[in-house]
Each structure stands twice: as C-alpha cells, then as structure tokens.
Specification:
Two copies of one chain form a homodimer. Chain A has about 240 residues and is an alpha+beta fold. In chain A, helix 5 packs antiparallel against helix 6 and helix 6 (about 150-165) packs across helix 8 (about 190-205). Chain A folds into two domains: about 5-130, Jelly Rolls (Sandwich); about 145-235, Winged helix-like DNA-binding domain superfamily/Winged helix DNA-binding domain (Arc Repressor Mutant, subunit A, Orthogonal Bundle). Chain A has helices at about 5-10, 20-25, 85, 110-115, 120-145, 150-165, 180-185, 190-205, 220-225, and strands at about 30-35, 50-55, 60-65, 70-75, 80, 95, 100-105, 175, 205-210, 215. In chain A, the strands form three sheets. The first copy, chain A, has a four-stranded antiparallel β-sheet with strand order 1-7-2-5. In chain A, strands 4-3-6 form a three-stranded antiparallel β-sheet. Chain A has a three-stranded antiparallel β-sheet with strand order 8-10-9. Chain A starts with a helix and ends in a 15-residue tail after the last helix. Chain A is built from nine helices and ten strands. In chain A, strand 9 and strand 10 (about 215) form a beta hairpin. At the A-B interface, helix 3, helix 4 and helix 5 of A face helix 3, helix 4 and helix 5 of B.
Chain lengths: ~240, ~240
Amino acid sequence: MEKTPLVRKLGAFVALSDPELSVLASLHRRRRTFVAGRDLVQQGQSDQAAYILASGWACSYKVLEDGQRQIVDFQVPGDFLGLRSVLFNVSDHSIEPVTDIEVTEVHVSDLLDAFAQTPRLATAVLWAASRDEAMVVEHLVNVGRRDAAERMAHFLLELGGRLVLVGLGSRDGYACPLTQYLLADALGLSAVHVNRVLRQLREAGLVTFRDGFVSFDDYDRLTEFAQFDSSYLDQSGPLLR
Amino acid sequence: MEKTPLVRKLGAFVALSDPELSVLASLHRRRRTFVAGRDLVQQGQSDQAAYILASGWACSYKVLEDGQRQIVDFQVPGDFLGLRSVLFNVSDHSIEPVTDIEVTEVHVSDLLDAFAQTPRLATAVLWAASRDEAMVVEHLVNVGRRDAAERMAHFLLELGGRLVLVGLGSRDGYACPLTQYLLADALGLSAVHVNRVLRQLREAGLVTFRDGFVSFDDYDRLTEFAQFDSSYLDQSGPLLR
C-alpha cells in the first residue's frame, strides 16, 4: 500500500494495522487540486469540508474586521486542513494554498464512518488535532514571550521537525515556499523586520533562508538559541502499539 | 441521570443518546480533588492523565527556560484538563488549579474503551478538542493583533459565553476568581496594565470586574468594541442529531 504523508505522520502515534490502513485509504477517495492564493475554506462558511494535504503548502488564518490578518499555522503534506472547524456550524478560519496543492476532501460523514469502523483511528485523529493545537500554543508563546529572533528560529525549527516526519526535510534543512510577507503575518512582525531577523540569524551562523531553502548552518546552536524543545511535536515514537 | 457540566457542554454539539450518556458517565468514576496553586500536571511529565473539571477553575500554561510564563487558557466546569497532551509521550504544558477543584481522572485506556463503545462520543471529544484549539487561536489573535483594551474585552466575553453554556453565567455577568496577575500572564500584559485597562473599560460603561464578579454593563457595545464573534465557540446548536 502506498505510504501517504498522513500515514507516515500518524505512524508516530500509532502502529496502524492493515484493516486500519484500509479505512484510512478510503478517506482518500475525493482527490482535488487548488491553485495558490485562492481560499479553500472561508471564515464564516457553513457546510465546510476538511482536507488532507497530499502535496504543497497551505496556511490557515483569521482576518479581523479592520483587515488585519493573523496566520495561525502553515500546513505541510500529511496535515489536515480545516479539521478544527469541520465539526462546527461555521468555519472559524480561512485556508489558503501557499503553493498549488493536491488534497483529498473529507466530509464529516466520512470521519464518522471511519471512527465507527476503527476507534483507534479516531484516537489517531484526536492525536493529530492535539498536535495541531500544541503548535498553535507554541505560536502563542512565540508572539507573547519570545523576541523576534528567537521566535523566527523556533518557527523554522518547528517546520523542520514536521517536515522530517513526512520525509521532506532533514537536519540540513528543507525546501520552503514561504515569502517574508507570510512569515511576517505568522510571527506578528513586519516584512522589513523579518528580513532583518533572517539576516541576523544568518550572520550568526545559525540558519540561512535563501532561494526557497532553509539551511540549518548549526542545528544544535540554533536549537539552544531558540530554547526549542520538540516534545510538543510528539515524534519520538508510537504510544499505541 | 445527573446532567454534568460536560454533558451540558457536549449537548451543544451532539444530542447524546442514553447509552452514550452511560458511557460518558462511566468516565466519571475516579473523583479527585486538588487544592488551588498545586500543579495537577507538569510540563515534561510522562504517564499523565486527563481530567474532566466538575467544579472550580484551572489554568494551563507553559514556562520558558528563563522563567517567563504564558497562560494558554483557563478551564471552567465541563472542560477537559490535559486532553491536548494525554495522547503524547510527555505533557507539553502544566495545569494548575486557580481555586480548589473537583475533577474526574481519565486515562487513555478509558478514552479508547469509550470510543470503541460509541464512535459518536469520539466525535464529540474531537469537537471539544477543536473548540479548545479555536480558543487558543483567538488568544493568539488577541496577543498578536488586538490592543490591550480590545484584548481584555474579547477575553471577558469569551469566558462569559463559555460559562453560559454550563449554566454558570448570563448576559449580566459571572463570578470570576481570576486575579490581575493571572489575567496579565494570559493576555501578555503587566498587572499594572491590566488594572489600567479594566478601569478604562469600566469608565467607558462597558464592563466592570470587581469583588470576584464580572458585570457586563453594556453587553452589545462591549461585543462591538471587542469585535467579538462567538461563532468559534460553536454554541448555536447541535450539528449531530
């Protein structure tokens, strides 16, 4: 069976059996593609679906009445899009593809069917949702308590850890399509400030983000600088055998 | 059957059947009490349990290496404590009772058993986790994009909405045990700043927080001032019948 990014990711939590893998594969029926920059889900929308990201990057965000935007998180292959509010009457956020993306569409009824067939999969999806929340918590700590350079370093390390899990990164670095504007909206900085902080981290020999690639120049020192403790990503091995 | 705060809360998402209510009641076997100020769960702890809060208030927080603290959220009756990381190898956060509290302790095996018996309950727990995440997202928007007065107003309205759902508040207000120090650690403000902002909101005739009670002096104007859209609390009625 093809090992999708989602299967790789859930494997960090639970050793899925063949029948469970079949149920998971059945969630991948409705394949769709979306082009960069056009919302898949809009804040306030009802009857919204969730999606599993197969390839490309997306971002989830909220817009205030005065037009300010806060990017909540970026999604990479293996992540759910819109899982948080698929069970809500209306979506509490918008989702925009950062690049062209391939997804599979998942309806609430698909989730209910899958959970009925294999409760362990329900637990795995709850784990994935918990991990998404743990990342938002770190973004709150970022914006609330870390200075701009630590914030950026923590954020680039988190993305690295997530991408390693789905085979798209290493301790050397990863391909990253994010612009400085997107980084600014995620980290609560201006684009000019993002540029300055990236230069500062590069000149300190810690990390270089250039030409669509994040290179960890000194992974250990960067980790120490950002006080990055990856345990909230819970990638150290499956709890459920 | 006794209608616990959790049953009241989940009722906003799903009309639970009698068998489902029995399974939920079976989660309430291990009753425990904790005194204010002593952590139930510590960041980095393994083999942690989750808890369902029956009475009292708690807070979840993260501490940085330099000792700074960010309160992620407060929990009120009907909320889970530690649900986010009960499926993780180690807890990513700490939980402290704000008042003396009564809880029931829930182990991962209890959750797995309950999900196996009724998949709809698994969906309801996923909904509760999604709602917790939606609140953390709003706290990120608070700290990232709202000024101090809007931030405080939004936060007090959110708590009000949550308490109404479990029968502990109304549009007039609610009993609130939070100190200015706790509000400061949640909102990324100093205690002095919290004091100033509360005075400002009171003098504007919007809301008064005094002697352990939050009084909405003008609920509609406060809602408009904070741009508070409660749809992320998803309390408008059950999606699943």
